[in-house]
Write a structure and sequence with these properties.
The protein is built from 17 helices and ten strands. It has a domain of 237 residues. 32% of the residues lie in helices and 9% in strands. The longest helix is centred in the C-terminal third of the chain and has 21 residues. A hairpin with a 5-residue loop joins strand 9 and strand 10.
Amino acid sequence: MPHGEGLAERVRAFALKLGFDAVGIARADRDLEQDIARYDAFVEAGMQGEMGWLAKHRDARARLDGDQILAGAKSVICLARSYGNHARAPVVADLGVGRDPRHKPDLGVGRDPRHKPDLGVGRDPRHKPDLGVGRDPRHKPESGEGELTGGIARYARGRDYHRFLRRGVRRLAAFLRTLGSADCPVRARPLCDDAPILERAWAAQAGLGFVGKNGMLIVPGVGSMVLLGEVVTTLELATDAPMTQRCGACTRCLDACPTSAFAAPFVLDPRRCVSYLTIEHRSAVPEGLREAMGENLFGCDDCQTVCPFNAAAISRAPAPLERSSNALSGPGWGGVFGAGAPNDKPGIERPRSPPPDRATRVKRELDATGPFAPLERWSRVRLEDLLALDEGQWRALSEGTPLKRAGRCGLARNAAIVLGNRRDRRALPALRQAANGHEEPIVREAAAWAIARLEKDHSACAVPFVEAADATGARSLSRSGGRTPPSDE
């Protein structure tokens, strides 16, 4: 079976046509000795928290060519899909500078870690920006960006990425199988968050990028806001060289973490990470970490938004594509639960059609946006609404989105904490209702915490009145600590 550069280039070109931003190839028949040692230390320290599955299947994490992944595997094709610029075209024909991992581009301002660029508002970790939409001053909020959007991690604001990412990975695996013959068949297994492998370690081995101090894979020219997929195959392909680590002395990602979740450079303790706490953690959030959660409802991008490699990638992002006008419309919950589309011309009566079922409504909304563009539904939901969702409303809201991972009660718990951090007393009625009537104890407790926080702020602002006597002996009320008005005498 030929395995020269030409065959690897055919595989790479096909992957890029599928819409992936970067492709790298590594040998699959080798150990990840250093990475598995770090994994062992991670598990031994109990850093997996409630993610018990991370402590299982060690052998599969150590090698790809065993029975647990693909016996006899020779190569692994690692793939990256950017979500940092959600509106770009789905198929990439022109890779641009730096997207081919073998290319060594001029990284420009902010990409050389020795260079200290002006990162702008929100990129300096000492600055406390508005955690919602608008961290990047060049970002223009879209019609679908409402109260919820800014508290949702960028990768999760649109549709569930597993659906379309897996489709691309499977198509690449199918293409690899066509490169075999009856005498020498090629086997290929597509992977996308469905097998216990150390995907960032393999991506680094494949020259797709390098692992930053925040543990994220950084693809020069694309950034760290990427989703990863792999195809493990018995086809032997020419491999790419790993990249050298390029962070230098920069510690912006470590300094920006609101909960100080990095035990050391390259070592994240998920038990303190906002993404873990808001998505995977099923118990009550430790009280000492709640204020640091800020307004993060689902996930957190803080350690990525400050990264100079992401700043450079955003500066080269193409202009957003126009969004379709047939998105679900209508104010309030109606747009999520079944409002029909308005007439497109005033004064003309249109025959009323039966309201679409839930699956049809979801498909229309997903088709009307790019895969990572904020869904229209987020603009019609308030945080207070999340405290009182029933199962039917939750299914309609979360269908086809990554937010399903947190669960209805988990997101309600998060919403209560965010409302407490916002210190807006207008949320008190909804919080009191949740504290008194929600069926889940962690939601009731989080709502009670938020109420106590709001009422404490209110009592601190209210200065008590005390009685004071004037020169005539008459008693009057004055602010505590203030002066009694002087007598006319």
